[in-house]
Amino acid sequence: MNRMCYLNIPFMKKLITIAIILLLSITKLLAAPIADTLKQQLSIVSDSLKGPIFTQIAVGYLHYDTVKSKAKKLEYQEKALNYTMQALHYYSKYNDTTGLRLSFDNLAKVYYAQKKYTQAKWFILQSNTLSRDKNDVPNIITSLLVLASIKTDITDYGLAMRDLNEALQLSVNNHYSRNESAVQESFAMLYTRTGNTAKAAIALKRHNFINDSIRKSEEANIIAKAKTKDSLLNKKKLYTSNSKKLYKTSSSRKMALL
Question: How far apart are CA 89 and CA 82, in angstroms?
Fold first, then answer.
């Protein structure tokens, strides 16, 4: 019996390999109709709905980091840019500021990945302006972090520091812990690039401390919710038990009267 199992191991490995290949093939076949379906919708929906559809198509290509081939990665980036630009056209036509900001963010992301800093900087500045117009503080912070990264890469360290200081102030004033953690991480990267390892270590320590505080707070909330749920369940059980006792007592009295 053991010998038969041993002899079947290569065969089983081959079957597993074939199964994986088939699964990947099925995944690709399923992904294609989804993209085709979205493209088909463009011919039947009104212009006001075309922006979000182009964005959905672009999102599929924004995952270019998962592609190993450099040529394929570049192809994905160009398609992401193309479909986002088309989405931008419709968002602009209907003054959809949320769609515009999202498009600017996506364009900045791709251009930054391609190290086309001038284009990346321009688009993230547009996103920042729209966020400021709407007083959208979380996205103001996010765009400032991207700006700081771009400026760090092109060695505009002073301007990058200014963006991070503003992002930090907004995060602290509005009690946005996650944003503050991201800002501290960006400070650590900037200080590392400028050779200030002492300040980089302090910023990284703050980043880790904030993340730890967030984790503990979330755990405490989970425990509190569990206790509340248990308390409600116990009350329900007690109520059900008392109701049954009252019913039995009432039934017994009725029987006695009969």
Answer: 11
Tell me, what's the pLDDT at 256?
A: 57
Q: Which tokens go with 210?
A: 């904030």
> What ranges in the chain are assigned the alpha helix state H?
2-41, 50-61, 70-93, 97-113, 117-133, 137-153, 157-173, 177-193, 197-257
| Global pTM value | 0.73
Domain 136-214 has CATH 1.25.40: yes
In tens, the pLDDT along 113-126 reads: 999 999 999 999 99
Q: CB under 8 Å to 76, separation ≥6 — which residues?
A: 61, 62, 63, 64, 67
d(CA 77, CA 153): 20
Domain spans of the chain, in order of start: 51-116, 136-214
